[in-house]
Amino acid sequence: MTSLPALPALPTATYRLQLQPEFPFAAAERAVPHLAGLGVSHLHLSPVLEAVPGSTHGYDVTDHGSVRTELGGEAGLRALAATARAHGLGIVVDLVPNHMAASPRHNRPLREVLRDGPDSPYARWFDIDRSAGDGRLLLPVLPARLPEVKDRLRVSGGALHLDGQEFPLRPGTEGLPLDELLDAQWYRLGWWRLARTELNYRRFFTISELIGVRVEDPEVFAATHAKIVELVGDGVVEGLRIDHPDGLADPQGYLEDLAAATGGRCWTVVEKILTGPETLPTDWPVAGTTGYDALRHLDGVFTDPLGAAELTDVYREFVGKAADRGGLWEATERRAAYEVVGHDLAAETAVLTRLAERICAADPALRDHAPWALRTAIRELLVRVPVYRAYRTGDEDVLTPEAARGAKAAFAVPEEAAAVDVVRALALGTLGEGPDHRAFRARFAQTSSALRAKSVEDTAFYRYTPLLSANEVGGDAGRPAVSTEEFHAYCLRIARDWPGTGTVLSTHDTKRSADVRAAIAVLAQCPQVWAELLAEVAGVPAPDAHVAWTAWQTAFGFGIPDAERLGPAILKSVREAGLRTSWTEPDTEYERAVADFAAAGPGRIPLRSASEAAFTLEPHIRAHALGVLLAQLTMPGVPELYQNTEREYRALVDPDNRAPFAVGPDDDRTALVRAALRLRRERPEAFGATGTYTPLTAEGPAAAHCLAFARSGEVVTAVTRLSLRLSEEGGWQDTELVLPDGRWADVLDGVREFTGGPATELKLAELFAERPVALLARLGD
User: Residue 7: is its pLDDT beyond 60?
Assistant: First the structure.
């Protein structure tokens, strides 16, 4: 294959496209001229390797060695790359190293493991604990208990068949009677509900349909990355987004292997969720994260802290007993962690317990720790991990002595609490270096990551809902606001340490798009308006106050009454919350009531125009949306636009936000995007790896409502924050901003010019006379 010439290593901006059979490579190729016209430098493609037929996301990989046929195959990807390159664009792809589809019909390595057992050359690909039960791999795929479906099993062609599923037979067993045949296999077919407690393979979070892959094994790494490395070597792929690195046994080791395999030729970012003040490990060979930490700071700096606190009070009063743990974030988060670790992740904690038992039994100094005590210690330490997981360094900051003391408090007998010290030492890697010791440390960290994701992102965020705009991946629902000082400190650190990191506002995983969150966030500036709106729609009966609050706030953010889109999102929220119904134990009567309420209320009533007070919020929603967008496009890092977000984009949780891309009409966002991205391409030195970030501070009575910064003395961004509060306080009045020295042009209108310097003060009322944001470029001498 002919290699393509190299583009600059650091993208100026990326554009994410969700590939699927309805939007294959050829469709993406047709979109290239439009996307190039926006000013991005790279297309970011969702996973491109072979996946389960019909998959709309591609994370269920079935073959690492081939590009997905349904998307157009390798020829289609190479044609897309060539067309993109002709328009000055490169390709970034989403790489999924942690898991594959657990479908033997489509996953050949897994199929061979099921057929040949531990002797299969692919047995090393998967984390299978054969010390559990009878040593066979449990496949929790049956719709009911085995005796209830056994008469539907069919044997033919060397395989078992059931309802479209296919399972290979161990050689020499095809002619056995059915019961003997089932017992003779290397695997055991089981009821899907057994996965919670009996599963003995590592999976993605709690999704048994995705089996973990052991990329820490050099042979497995080489086999699963050969095609991607080839595409990188040929210049087809120039950047990689690494999906869920926290699921890997050794994320740093994996990233080092990847950097060595690609020769460091790729811009690589990791989907690493940072919690609170946590920072990315400095020794990871990557450009940074995919941007959820930037999202938290961007959303936070446009959220009113005092109003958010008032809104929380309104929430607690409205929801009352329907609120989980009295509407307190910390209690909600901790309760969800206990539920998930004890229920959804029971199989994972069982693996850890078995490992700990073996280690203790083999070490005379550790004997006689009861299995229940080890299990309790594992649970109590896991729920006290304050971040997603520990890594090679900094473990002591994660599994602290304080966490150990808290874990010990769960034991009635102090002597039994000594199990906590054993488990903590194993998790820290200070108690030995045997195979079981290494396995325990890795699996503890992997389980910790799954626990955090499921208990916070997928449970607590749906139970604690005062301000839904704060409930995004990496967010802090208990502290939704970020001060301008915190925002500037974050940007200064990113410019210094991670100038190539990603920044995002909307992704395929955000629960609400940036425009939906902008509308919701404005409610923090007017809690009483929100309370009045709820009173106006009180005549629509809801199943309970919690779902009423969540559904109406979602509808307000969405802005358009649309039962077909709002209904599924609201139903998903109550299932994820798990307070009255769930995915695995649905309460059909309650869910029917939720669906009826969604159709009669949020799906029918246009809440944003339900009253004059709500209607007057629209300019402030626009100010928020434009402000956060311009800040993202010009702050340190590489900005990513999610498909369709170059204009107003209202989307809810997946699958709503994963609809195929479609070119739409331009609006004021599109002009802003083009102007900002054009500036990034014209002045790479201002925004690139050596670019600087300088906070600018306004002076005057409304100074707190201006967020402003300069990039390398060449570009100034100034935006309005909390515009409703600003209006209530009398507007900008005499508030001024001092620009850096020189002459400056407003690139958003192409007409206005300003002079900077300490002796020249710019009235913000003048700067923001036409729009709530300004983007200034320094003019030549």
Answer: no
75-79, 334-338, 614-618 — which is least confidently predicted?
Answer: 614-618
* Residue found under tokens 């269920």: 60
Residue carrying structure tokens 């998307």? 71
How many whole angstroms separate alpha carbon 588 and alpha carbon 93?
40
**Cα–Cα distance for residue pair 579/568, rounded to 1 Å:** 17
Q: What is the largest CA-CA distance in the chain?
A: 94
C-alpha–C-alpha distance, residues 769 and 499, integer Å: 33
List the structure tokens of 748.
């958003």
Q: How far is CA 531 from the centre of its chain?
A: 31
Residue in the structure block whose two tokens are 């890795």? 442
CB 184 within 8 A of CB 136: no
CA atoms within 13 A on the CB side of 743: 6
For residue 6, give the nearest of 250, 208, 291, 267 by alpha carbon. 267
Check if the beta carbon of residue 441 is closer than 8 Å to that of residue 429.
yes
Determine if residue 95 is left, alpha or beta; phi over 0 gives left, psi from -120 to 50 gives alpha, anything else beta: beta
* Strands 154-156 and 49-51, bridge-based pairing: unpaired
pLDDT digits (tens, 9 = 90+) for 696-723: 999 999 999 999 999 999 999 999 999 9
Reference 775, options 708, 705, 721, 693; nearest CA is: 708
CA distance 626 to 514: 10
Contact between 607 and 537 (Cβ < 8 Å): yes
pTM of the predicted model, to two decimals?
0.96
Distance from C-alpha of 32 to C-alpha of 29, rounded to nearest angstrom: 5
Helices (H), 581-667: 588-600, 612-615, 618-634
- The answer to which of 183-187, 321-325, 765-769 has the lowest mean pLDDT is 321-325
Which tens digits make up the pLDDT trace of 58-98?
Answer: 999 999 999 999 999 999 999 999 999 999 999 999 999 99
Give the C-alpha separation, 393 to 253, whole Å. 12
Place of tokens 């990355």: 225
C-alpha–C-alpha distance, residues 301 and 490, integer Å: 11
